[in-house]
Amino acid sequence: MADEALFLLLHNEMVSGVYKSAEQGEVENGRCITKLENMGFRVGQGLIERFTKDTARFKDELDIMKFICKDFWTTVFKKQIDNLRTNHQGIYVLQDNKFRLLTQMSAGKQYLEHASKYLAFTCGLIRGGLSNLGIKSIVTAEVSSMPACKFQVMIQKS
Amino acid sequence: MAVCVAVIAKENYPLYIRSVPTENELKFHYMVHTSLDVVDEKISAMGKALVDQRELYLGLLYPTEDYKKRYGYVTNSKVKFVMVVDSSNTALRDNEIRSMFRKLHNSYTDVMCNPFYNPGDRIQSSRAFDSMVTSMMIQVC
């Protein structure tokens, strides 16, 4: 199916576009990750508004996280999160053993240093989605071996 | 017919409020404002409810002595819709109100997904949203 590849291609172009403009001095160097993250934030807000239109009201925080791992992830990345762990005190770890945006690169450690640029958008996506559902959070990603990666969500209690 | 339609943000400030021009606008603002507490109360009570009762539509907010009824609806993103309905000559059924809210929600989602709209801003320049609200105000009268 062509429409599945479309998102991947668009995302790749977006990452390289942002980094190219950084080389030309349009964006401050080092701000690229933030820029990608902010793009993801806005997209996440819009997406969650659409996805939750026909769902029942969420019971609690865990219910929301489950929704992100199942429905949200399936729609965006065509698979569910493989493992969701929580300490029940506001920290959630979402583990994806075959993260779709990293599958295009060779598995293993060869491009490990470049992985963070391809995860920034997704971090923003999660943060934006949660913020629209009324949860403030900090989302970080870590990769030890491609294409598996972990997203850590820290809920900010207000 | 709907005489007033309001969209209230998560943080309880108005994103959009429109009422029929024939009556005092301030009165409607006041009506919507007083409804918000009831909306909050209903949501917190709903958290403990069973799965099938966790609907987005809240129903009639509270009975009033006059013919203007207030209905509420809260999206998953905690955005509140309040509608004041004039039922002096037509008794509207619950289902009709529910479908009106669904239409409003669909339009709101479209506004949210508009790249030129910043989440949290007032909805001012959306012609599609405006005309949808207008249609709701005329539709049933």
Automatic annotation (TrEMBL), chain A:
Annotated keywords: Endoplasmic reticulum, Golgi apparatus, Neurogenesis
GO cellular component, one term: TRAPP complex
UniProt superkingdom: Eukaryota
Compartments where found: Endoplasmic reticulum; Golgi apparatus, cis-Golgi network
CDD domains: TRAPPC6A_Trs33
Pfam families found in the cross-reference section: TRAPP (PF04051)
InterPro entries referenced in this protein's UniProt entry, alphabetically: NO_sig/Golgi_transp_ligand-bd, TRAPP_component, TRAPPC6/Trs33
UniProt similarity note: Belongs to the TRAPP small subunits family. BET3 subfamily.
Functional summary from the UniProt entry: Component of a transport protein particle (TRAPP) complex that may function in specific stages of inter-organelle traffic. Specifically involved in the early development of neural circuitry, likely by controlling the frequency and amplitude of intracellular calcium transients implicated in the regulation of neuron differentiation and survival.
Subunit-level organization: Homodimer. Part of a TRAPP complex. Heterodimer with TRAPPC3. The heterodimer TRAPPC6B-TRAPPC3 interacts with TRAPPC1 likely providing a core for TRAPP complex formation.
Protein name: Trafficking protein particle complex subunit 6B
Organism: Myotis myotis (Greater mouse-eared bat)
TrEMBL record, chain B:
Keywords linked to the UniProt accession: Cytoplasm, Endoplasmic reticulum, ER-Golgi transport, Golgi apparatus, Transport
Entry's Gene Ontology cellular component terms: endoplasmic reticulum; Golgi apparatus; perinuclear region of cytoplasm
Gene Ontology BP term (one): endoplasmic reticulum to Golgi vesicle-mediated transport
Protein name according to UniProt: Trafficking protein particle complex subunit 2-like protein
Gene3D superfamilies: 3.30.450.70
Lineage: Eukaryota, Metazoa, Chordata, Craniata, Vertebrata
InterPro entries, sorted: Longin-like_dom_sf, Sedlin, TRAPPC2L
CDD domains referenced in this protein's UniProt entry, alphabetically: TRAPPC2L (cd14854)
Top-level taxon in the UniProt lineage: Eukaryota
Record-stated family: Belongs to the TRAPP small subunits family. Sedlin subfamily.
Gene that encodes it: TRAPPC2L
Compartments it resides in: Cytoplasm, Perinuclear region; Endoplasmic reticulum; Golgi apparatus
